[in-house]
Design the sequence.
């Protein structure tokens, strides 16, 4: 999964970003500030955010981990887990791996020293990995379409979980994760999610200051994941339709959720974090422009406006098209200032020109910190369950996607309670029993022609 711009050289500099940020420019003028009286609300006395746990763990409980999904992100998460274990002085080891494809599964032997007989492959590989004696830590990093089922299985098996975002691709999948997250709390299992910004001190301190009132009441936000180039496309490889889709997973909604869900969820999560809530409705648009002629279903750009229950709105834009300007960042405008977030180079500027930036930070690698925090929670038995917050952000992204796909306003309850499933039936009922075979391909969604909330759903399929 790609968690950085496809063309990093196209990422704007901080100076250029400040010059061109519509939020910063607007907030500096009278437009936003004049509306403060209409948006006054009480500021929380204390912030919920806390610094990431980086202290050395007090106990020496061994952490025996399995990796489920050995693509780039799964392998990266395995390395991050090992680095975090070493930094905390905890005995951490990858004891088994699982991947649908044998050639991927066997990489666990060379990359992590996993015995060959513990490198499992196939649709049921995750079950075999979870059943290895002594496992107490599961890293879930398959394509997102499998996440809900794998998370449910891991919690049922009594494992602590690190799971990549997003955690589902549709309403039914989100409901599975919400329920499994509640079960994890009952079992005192710890859960961390791959929304790594929540584990970076540069973000934690900045968000806490905003929540504490550093810019006054938040009255508007904007979030970007606008790449300067397209996402990868692996072509059509495989003997069956499902194999072709899984190997090229990013381009199929049931596997990826589209890039507003798979990638832009990071930025949406920052907005939800600041607001301590999720939006209640949205509307938007988008298109498939530079992917024409290539196989797949997804779009390559979205623009969605979300509204929270208190009336505050966030504008979200994401794209994977070749372009000169790009930005992966977030911003919030308040009655007395603005806050900008750009990969840790964050700042808060008040209306009187005073500037704050995070300083003195030495451990700002969110990819490692998220494992530090999970390991610390396990060995010290402290509370940590990020299932709900990451599912809230995932469902927010799904809501935005369906608003754009359908061309309609979509509200939270409608998408949450939707019964439409993008994937094969077995994906939701018993994904271990899935087989390589036929599966339909949707036509790239077209507003007014694609609407999963209709009865029956409007989802045009590619004619074979």
Sequence:
């Amino acid at each position: 999964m790609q968690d950085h711009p496809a063309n990093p050289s196209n990422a704007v500099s901080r100076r250029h970003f400040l010059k061109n940020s519509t939020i910063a420019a607007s907030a500096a003028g009278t437009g936003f500030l004049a509306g403060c009286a209409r948006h006054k609300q009480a500021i929380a006395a204390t912030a919920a955010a806390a610094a990431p746990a980086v202290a050395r763990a007090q106990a020496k409980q061994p952490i025996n981990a399995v990796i489920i999904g050995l693509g780039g992100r799964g392998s990266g998460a395995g390395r991050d887990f090992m680095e975090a274990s070493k930094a905390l002085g905890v005995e951490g080891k990858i004891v088994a791996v699982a991947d649908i494809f044998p050639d991927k599964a066997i990489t666990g032997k060379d990359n992590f020293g996993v015995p060959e007989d513990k490198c499992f492959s196939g649709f049921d590989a995750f079950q075999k990995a979870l059943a290895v004696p002594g496992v107490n830590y599961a890293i879930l990093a398959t394509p997102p379409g499998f996440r809900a089922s794998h998370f449910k299985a891991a919690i049922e098996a009594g494992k602590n979980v690190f799971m990549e975002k997003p955690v589902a691709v549709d309403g039914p999948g989100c409901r599975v994760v919400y329920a499994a997250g509640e079960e994890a709390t009952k079992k005192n299992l710890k859960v961390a999610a791959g929304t790594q910004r929540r584990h970076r001190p540069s973000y934690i301190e900045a968000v806490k200051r905003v929540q504490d009132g550093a810019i006054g009441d938040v009255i508007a936000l904007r979030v970007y994941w606008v790449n300067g180039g397209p996402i990868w496309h692996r072509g059509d490889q495989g003997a069956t339709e499902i194999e072709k889709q899984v190997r090229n997973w990013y381009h199929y909604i049931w596997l990826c959720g589209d890039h507003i869900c798979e990638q832009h969820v990071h930025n949406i999560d920052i907005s939800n974090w600041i607001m301590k809530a999720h939006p209640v409705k949205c509307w938007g648009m988008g298109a498939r422009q530079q992917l024409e002629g290539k196989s797949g279903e997804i779009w390559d750009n979205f623009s969605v406006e979300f509204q929270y229950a208190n009336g505050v709105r966030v504008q979200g834009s994401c794209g994977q098209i070749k372009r000169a300007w790009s930005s992966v960042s977030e911003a919030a405008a308040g009655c007395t200032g603005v806050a900008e977030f750009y990969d840790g180079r964050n700042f808060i500027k008040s209306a009187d020109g005073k500037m704050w930036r995070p300083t003195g930070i030495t451990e700002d690698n969110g990819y490692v910190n998220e494992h530090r925090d999970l390991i610390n929670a396990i060995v010290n038995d402290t509370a940590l369950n990020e299932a709900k917050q990451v599912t809230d952000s995932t469902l927010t992204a799904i809501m935005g996607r369906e608003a754009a796909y359908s061309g309609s306003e979509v509200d939270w309850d409608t998408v949450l309670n939707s019964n439409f499933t993008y994937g094969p039936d077995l994906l939701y009922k018993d994904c271990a029993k899935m087989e390589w075979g036929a599966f339909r391909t949707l036509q790239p969604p077209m507003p007014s022609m694609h609407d999963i909330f209709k009865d029956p759903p409007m989802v045009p399929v590619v004619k074979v």
